[in-house]
Every structure is written in C-alpha cells, then in structure tokens.
Amino acid sequence: MIPITVVKVGAEEEALVLQVLRSGMLAQGAMVQRFEEHCREMTGAAHAVAVNNGTTALVVALEALQLQPGDEVVTSPFTFVATLNAILEAGATARFADISDTDFNLDPSTLPTVLTDRTKVLMPVHLYGQAADMAPIAAVADQRGLAIVEDAAQAHGAHYGDRPVGTYGQATFSFYATKNLHSGEGGAVTTNDDVLADRLRLLRSHGMRARYQYELAGHNYRLSDLAAAVAIPQFDRLPSIIDARTVNAEYFNHHLSGLDGVTTPVTVAGRTHAWHQYTLRITADSPVRRDEVLKRLNAAGIGAGIYYPKAVYDYECYRSHPAVRIGAGSPVAECVAGEVISLPVHQHLTEGERDRVVSSVHAAVRA
Ligand SMILES: Cc1ncc(COP(=O)(O)O)c(C=O)c1O
C-alpha cells in the first residue's frame, strides 16, 4: 500500500524531545516559545500563540473577537468538520458561502448573498494547502467591518501573492500528525493585532494574567514542550517539504491531464500551493464513477482518499442544529464533494511509487 500520509520524525526531533524529557519541564515553557518564534517567522505575523490543536486555535481566535450569541461566522462549506465545530464551540452561528471548483476555496462572489446584519467574521479555509482568494475576501471584510479568521490548518507556508497565509486578521494552523508540519497534536494562532494576541494568550490558559489573577473565563488549551520539540526541527525543512510535494504534484498534473472525466488540480496564478493534498475531480463525463475509481485505486494498493465526502453541513446533526444556517445550500460544494479524490503526494514518495500512482489512476478511470 502507498499510504496517503507517512509520518516520520528524524534524529533532530528525537534529540530535542530527549532534551525536554531530561529537563523535567514537560509542560508549556521554553520549547513552546521557540515553536511560536518559528510560527512568527513562517507567517511574518507579529504574534503567534501556540495551543494544543488546530480546533482549539479556531475556538480561541473566535472567542478573542468577543462575539455575542447569534453573531454569525461565514465560512466554507467544503472543509474538515473542525472548522464548523469550532464556530459552534465558540457560541457563534455558522453560515456558508460557496466554493469555486477551481481552487476548492471560498468563492468571494458568493459572499454577498449570505452576509447578514449579524455577520461578524469571515472564515476562509486554505483547503488542501492552497491559499483562498484573500484580496476580494479582505475587501469585503473591510467594507463591512468584519474580522477575518483564516483556517490555515492545511496550508503552512502557502502564499497569496508575496504574502504568506496568516496575517489577514487572525490565522490558525494545525500541527496534527498528518499535516505537512506536525507536533503529533498541536495548533497556533497568528496575528498582527496586539490586543487580540494578549486575549489569545489569556484564553489559552484559564484567562490567567499572573498566578490566580483571572481576567476572563478561559481554557486549558496549552501546548506542551514535548509536542513543540517534535515540530521545531521541521520548520527549517518546510521549504524542502513543499518543494518535494510540488515536484510530485507537477508530475501528476503532467501525467494525468487529458484523461476523460479527470480534472487535475490548479494552482491559481499569484498563489503558491503547499500541496497538503493532491486532489483530482472525477467529473460527470468520466466513464467510471468516483467511488468506483476509489475502490479500484485502493485495490491496487494506492491509499487514495476522499476529502471530504459531503458539504460540511450535510449531516443530520448539523441540519438540525439551531446555530447552523444552511439556507439554499452551497451547490458547487455539494457537487464537488461527490467528485474529489486525493492521491498520495507526500515528500516521502519514491519515483517508483509516483509511477505506480500514475499507472493505477490510468487503469482506474478506464471503462
Ligand atoms: C481545515 C481544517 N481545519 C481545522 C482542523 C483542525 O485541526 P486539529 O485536527 O489539529 O484540531 C483541521 C485538521 O485536520 C483541518 O484540516
């Protein structure tokens, strides 16, 4: 089986983890500070606040905005469920614009139809590692006085123009084990806003300014030094990780374009792609249905997967949720969810494995 992700930690990570273990200081401390410095460097943001995962990063980013019950967050309907769960956890109401079937990200032209008087936040998701179309999204936010929270869980090191993702308002990253950069479990929020950064630090640790001095009702969302030590050595390798994934993605694009009913992924001009996922669309004109293609690929030992099988709201628990507003739905997202299929694109693929992926896709889409 060629797995869709391979998690490897090297000698540098082992040495740093051992250093933490031997120090006896395992909770949030000096390593987390180093981790935060790396997050600032990666994004160019003035502040980075480490937390224990990418979901809690979204929760504190929203809570830092001091939303009131009934305030609305407009996000992408095509994302991992954490995006939606974080909105609900923060006590806000979720609404969905639609996506573009070119970059799988929020289509800014669909925003106006879902904005209401209660909209307070736009939450684009940089899905699969490609930056969302931030300029028009930021323009809408500016015009309407809305905050931006970028869900950059999958997009470490991706750029929109010259600008790394992570500085349009607040941005959140996941360092879950299968992400391009990881700490096993981990997260971070980046921002240029001093006031928000201060609130984020309070929210992460019980709202505590100094010992037993509480300023707001907070959480224990701290990252441990042990986890931070796993991620730290990887930051310097991020450019080469993205390069290797890009080489694989370009190889696939070259060898898989032109197949009937197969659409290869596009990196939009002016943006870079971190290639967290390499995702094809198997469209209606394919002689073989998407689910059959998946079955054939899996049977051939290719760890292809579906990210994600439905629009995020399209489950009974959300359809019946009082804080989830679906409206007329998001037709592009609903259609694309039935078409996508992601292939292994990770930096550990060998040339032989890459060729096997290509030949297996050719075979799987043949009638
Ligand atoms: C788009 C998106 N948002 C949020 C998250 C949540 O991150 P975590 O799993 O670290 O809580 C993920 C992680 O899988 C994600 O892919």
What this model shows, in words?
This protein has helices at 11-23, 30-43, 54-63, 82-89, 134-144, 194-204, 225-256, 290-299, 316-319, 331-337, 351-364; strands at 47-51, 72-75, 93-96, 119-123, 147-151, 159-160, 163-164, 170-174, 187-191, 208-210, 213-214, 262-263, 278-282, 324-325, 340-343. The protein has 367 residues and is of the alpha/beta class. The strands form four sheets. An eight-stranded mixed beta sheet has the order 1-9-8-5-4-2-3-14, with helices on both faces. A three-stranded antiparallel beta sheet has the order 12-13-15, with helices on one face. Helix 1 packs antiparallel against helix 7. The longest helix has 32 residues, at 225-256. The chain is globular and about 65 Å long. The mean pLDDT is 97. Pyridoxal-5'-phosphate binds at residues 53-55, 79-80, 82-83, 125, 151, 153-154, 174, 176, 187.
In terms of quaternary structure, the protein is: single chain
Main-sheet strand order equals: 1-9-8-5-4-2-3-14
Distance between the ends: 24 Å
H/I helix tally: 11
Estimated radius of gyration: 20 Å
Residues in helix, %: 25-40%
Secondary structure tally: strands: 15
Shape: globular
Averaged pLDDT? 97
Structural class: alpha/beta
> Ranges with pLDDT <50 over ≥5 residues?
none
**Element pattern in H and E:** HHEHEHEEHEEEEEHEEHEEHHEHEH
Quick one: biggest sheet? 8 strands, mixed
Q: List all distinct small molecules, including ions and cofactors, that are bound in this structure.
A: pyridoxal-5'-phosphate
β content, as a range? 5-15%
